[in-house]
Amino acid sequence: MTSSCCIFVCFSIWCDKSTFTIKQDNTLYFYESENFYKIPENETPIAQNTPKLKFDLTSDDRVLVLQELNNIKTLVAISGETGLSTTILSAEEIEFHIENEDFYVNTFELELGSGWQSHWFKKSNNNYSKTTYNNSRFIFIKNLQAEFNSIYLLSSDVNSVDSNLVKPSLYKYDQTESNGRKKGRSKNNGTVDFSYGELNTDVSKVKTSIIRNDIYGQIVIEGINEDSGVGRSVEEYYFFNPSQMEAAPSIEEQSLTLIKRTIL
């Protein structure tokens, strides 16, 4: 006898109905009105056999699915209403996060030489408009004081090297700014990008992140550090103050502080 594992993903708790998606043997099923429906209806045999790495549900019942084939990841959106799928994008690396109807995506090498980019997909009628921020990665920080994760931006003024974001700074995120960096007033320089500080390491991975209270946030990253004159793989723990008031403090005054570094 063989057994199958079903994974419950997300209830539409913000709607006046209960919908969710499960996966069984790499097949997705959408639940609505006391019935399960196999999705997508237009799935090809190749897609059916392509591993589904992650899936989640928007507030308007679109299922986002991350798949991987031949070392290329693809993000697909499936309408719960029609059961049909649409390819959003493909890249070497993809990370995504949903908030209500909108979703936020990090990609590496969406196009040849594009490096790390962050993309905000905003619902527009029955489609989405995309805003892209270059040399950036969203951080979806678990906020113990809020209903949803808090979105921050790791962003660099230098193009990505290999698969690393080069010595990025941590910024407040603002959808309305062309570079995604929220603006603030500096006591010395007028209007500037609101930065918590700069990392002295090229970031390859954001492992964990959390905001515990108004003054304590933590980010754990992996990357390459060259403080010794030789590039070394490291794991680093950083503290930052989510309530920081100064928009662009000096290195000595920035709240982003290295707490611990481990050589890997």
Write the layout of secondary structure elements.
Blueprint: E1 20-24, E2 27-32, E3 35-39, H1 45-48, E4 52-57, E5 62-69, E6 72-79, E7 85-91, E8 93-99, E9 102-108, E10 116-124, E11 127-134, E12 136-143, E13 150-155, E14 169-172, E15 183-186, E16 190-193, E17 195-198, E18 202-213, E19 216-225, E20 232-240, E21 257-263
Parallel strand pairs: 12-18
Antiparallel strand pairs: 1-2, 2-3, 4-5, 5-6, 6-7, 8-9, 9-10, 10-11, 12-13, 13-14, 14-17, 15-16, 18-19, 19-20, 20-21
What does this structure look like?
This protein has one helix and 21 strands. The chain is mainly beta and 264 residues long. The protein has two domains: 1-134, no CATH class; 163-264, no CATH class. 30% of the residues are buried.
> What is the total domain count?
2
Q: Round the mean pLDDT to the nearest integer and report it.
A: 89
Radius of gyration: 20 Å
Q: Which structural class do the helices and strands define?
A: mainly beta
Q: List low-confidence stretches.
A: 8-16
Q: What overall form do the CA principal axes indicate?
A: globular
Topology as H/E string?
EEEHEEEEEEEEEEEEEEEEEE
Share in helix: under 10%
The count of β-strands is 21
* Residue fraction in strands: over 45%
Walk across the major sheet and give the strand order.
17-14-13-12-18-19-20-21
In whole angstroms, how far apart are the ends? Answer: 43 Å
* Count of alpha and pi helical runs: 1
For the report, how would you describe the main beta sheet?
Answer: 8 strands, mixed
